[in-house]
From TrEMBL:
A single Gene Ontology CC term: cytosol
UniProt pathway annotation: Carbohydrate metabolism; D-tagatose 6-phosphate degradation; D-glyceraldehyde 3-phosphate and glycerone phosphate from D-tagatose 6-phosphate: step 1/2
Family in the record: Belongs to the carbohydrate kinase pfkB family.
Protein name (Swiss-Prot/TrEMBL): Tagatose-6-phosphate kinase
GO molecular function: ATP binding; phosphofructokinase activity; tagatose-6-phosphate kinase activity
InterPro entries: Carboh/pur_kinase_PfkB_CS, PfkB_dom, Ribokinase-like, Tagatose/fructose_Pkinase
Major enzyme class: transferase
The EC number(s) this enzyme carries: 2.7.1.144
GO biological process: D-tagatose 6-phosphate catabolic process; lactose metabolic process
Domain of life: Bacteria
CDD domains assigned to the protein according to its UniProt record, in alphabetical order: FruK_PfkB_like
Amino acid sequence: MIATHTFNPSVDITYKIEPLVVGEVHRVKQKIENPGGKGINVTKVLHQLGAAHCAFGYLGGVNGQWMADTLKAMGITSAFTFIKGQTRQSLALNDGQAQTEVLEQGPTISESEQQAYFENISKHAADAKVVTISGSSPQFESRSKFDHMTHILKALPNTYNIVDTHAGELKALLEAELPIHCIKPNQSEFEMLVDEAQLTIDDCARLLQSHAYFSNCDVFLTLGGEGALVKWKSDIYRATLPHKDIVNPVGSGDSTVAGIAYGVDQGLAPEALIRQALACGTSNALQEKTGFIDVNQVSEIKNEIEVERFEW
């Protein structure tokens, strides 16, 4: 089973409007609501892949109940911890030319709610083979975001743990040598991690092999339309994507994480796992909805992705 963790889920609301003019009144042409948050997107893709899964996270208030009900109606398995605070909303204004986003911070999680979460994941820990932890964190009573994440990861010593969060937070977690087995930075996030800029592919490959952060960690370095550079165990792979006309790239990283988790859970060989992950990310970018893939399309795209050992 794959357990997904979303500490700060959100109700994602997209308003489609005429071209945005600051200070003017805009009437909504279309409103789209989705259960969101990076880990929720991961979960939705795992469900579409047919993977055994369970979504964990903090949900509260009317927004949280709506998310729980909507995900249940979609057939998604969950074990959420319910809180007194209100699950946040994230607003996107899409005028056909650009998307402007307004993101709420999220609730404060009480000490008793944190304890309930830890007890919940401990109860289910033996059921999971792979764990994903994705996205931002809300505020925690009497505990920093780092301390909360540390507590979670230390409770998961026997699973393959994939962490996809802000580079600043991730850096501190890697320095603490916590049980993190895979990360999925893009190039700018990778450069923040290693404190270097304008890296070439060869530079990235060298750092993947030599940097202390990655000595015991698989790294799936995504390069947008250029594909990915992947350190898997002791080997480096270069993956190249076919050209596609992108519809909506939001959530493609989360879909890639879902593909990695699925590949590990299924015991795929590295090349097959890389194709699976990138095909999921690419398929998501070809959909209007966030956190959705076309399974038949994924199968087709996998055959178009080139993966080879990287030599430099």
